[in-house]
């Protein structure tokens, strides 16, 4: 149990896609973070198969909870509240995590909080760099989501500034990797290949570059890469994978960082948080740091392990929600696969 002067102990459960994550957090202190990934089971299909992901969550949930509790040095009875991803995500995958969280909440007689996966990606930075400034602009870049958020308060005030109108950045990475003959998941593979390439060798288009919005589009970029590869092969030229990878990555990072800095300037915000799986990309990090330094903006990026899906981000957001005194979720809470980012709590 929490003793006087200590923040509540929060258990976080994440199962929105292909990672089963369980973590324990006190305030901004991460006590344990365990992840069981099913990515290898999806690799032969070139993407996530929902049914495979759901089955993997079922098999991994209890062992992952046990490992996390042992690593944190706590008993489940010590937990003060349970936070779980209620959306957005894959329906079956979300159901496994939410059902497990409900079972633990009922058995332990602890409050349950169904929270937003996307806001969790922002909250996790507090475990790396301490409390977030208020307000902050957050650039969330993952396989399923690319969004710009204005966060005045993690628990109560999150506003969507813009999002992708088609492919998310991570989706584009996977599809371009497939075009170049690189394995799934594509993000790390393209980042690795790009280190030996020249990002200026090919100019690929920047979708929605100057449209006056904070929305993104990467479908046209993906198509442009496909056409370039097809033309090169038709003319009998070798496809220089490093140059294509570097030029593609440059186009993605260019648009993401430009719009993020513009959003900070327009809203008078001096801090930018970048999170989500693509935030681990080396070029995105480097270009963000360069442009933010020139604009007098401080950029915060969690370490790569915290950028991908994990229980720590859900526990961190749960800690914020509990500290804000928000009411727990009912035990009949349902998953919401399209939960809007402005809804920090589901239901």
Automatic annotation (TrEMBL):
InterPro entries: ATPase_NBD, Gcp-like_dom, KAE1/TsaD, Peptidase_M22_CS, TsaD. Keywords: Acyltransferase, Cytoplasm, Iron, Metal-binding, Transferase, tRNA processing. One of its GO terms (molecular function) is tRNA N(6)-L-threonylcarbamoyladenine synthase activity. The keyword Membrane does not apply. The keyword Transferase applies. Pfam families: TsaD (PF00814). It is an enzyme of class 2 (transferase). It is found in: Cytoplasm. It catalyses: L-threonylcarbamoyladenylate + adenosine(37) in tRNA = N(6)-L-threonylcarbamoyladenosine(37) in tRNA + AMP + H(+). Substrate binds at residues 140-144, 174, 187, 191, 281. It comes from the Bacteria. Its EC number is 2.3.1.234. Binds 1 Fe(2+) ion per subunit. Residues 29-315 form the Gcp-like domain. Its main location: cytoplasm. Its cofactor is Fe(2+). SUPFAM superfamilies: Actin-like ATPase domain. Fe cation binds at residues 117, 121, 309. Required for the formation of a threonylcarbamoyl group on adenosine at position 37 (t(6)A37) in tRNAs that read codons beginning with adenine. Is involved in the transfer of the threonylcarbamoyl moiety of threonylcarbamoyl-AMP (TC-AMP) to the N6 group of A37, together with TsaE and TsaB. TsaD likely plays a direct catalytic role in this reaction. Belongs to the KAE1 / TsaD family. HAMAP family: TsaD. This is tRNA N6-adenosine threonylcarbamoyltransferase.
């Amino acid at each position: 149990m929490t003793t006087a002067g200590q923040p509540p102990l929060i258990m976080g459960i994440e199962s929105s896609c292909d990672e089963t994550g369980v973590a324990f957090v006190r305030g901004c202190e991460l006590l344990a973070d365990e992840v069981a990934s099913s990515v290898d089971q999806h690799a032969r299909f070139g993407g996530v198969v929902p049914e495979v992901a759901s089955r993997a969550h079922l098999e991994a949930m209890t062992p992952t909870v046990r490992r996390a509790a042992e690593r944190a040095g706590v008993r489940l009875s010590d937990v003060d509240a349970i936070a779980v991803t209620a959306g957005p995500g894959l329906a079956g995958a979300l159901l496994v995590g939410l059902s497990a969280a409900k079972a633990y909440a009922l058995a332990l007689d602890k409050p349950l909080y169904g929270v937003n996966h996307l806001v969790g990606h922002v909250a996790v930075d507090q475990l790396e760099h301490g409390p977030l400034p208020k307000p902050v602009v957050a650039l969330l870049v993952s396989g399923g989501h690319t969004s710009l958020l204005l966060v005045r308060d993690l628990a109560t005030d999150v506003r969507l500034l813009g999002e992708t109108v088609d492919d998310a950045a991570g989706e584009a990475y996977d599809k371009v990797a497939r075009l170049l003959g690189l394995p799934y998941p594509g993000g790390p593979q393209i980042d690795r290949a790009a280190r030996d390439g020249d990002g200026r060798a090919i100019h690929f288009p920047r979708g929605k570059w100057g449209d006056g919005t904070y929305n993104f589009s990467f479908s046209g970029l993906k198509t442009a890469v496909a056409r370039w590869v097809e033309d090169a092969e038709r003319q009998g030229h070798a496809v220089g994978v490093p140059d294509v990878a570097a030029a593609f990555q440059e186009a993605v990072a260019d648009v993401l960082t430009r719009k993020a800095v513009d959003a900070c300037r327009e809203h008078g915000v001096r801090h930018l948080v970048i999170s989500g799986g693509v935030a681990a990309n080396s070029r995105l990090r480097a270009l963000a740091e360069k442009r933010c330094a020139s604009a007098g903006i401080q950029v915060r990026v969690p370490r790569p392990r915290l950028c991908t899906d994990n229980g720590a981000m859900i526990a961190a957001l749960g800690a914020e929600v509990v500290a804000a005194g928000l009411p727990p979720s009912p035990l009949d809470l349902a998953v919401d696969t399209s939960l809007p980012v402005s809804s920090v709590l589901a239901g």
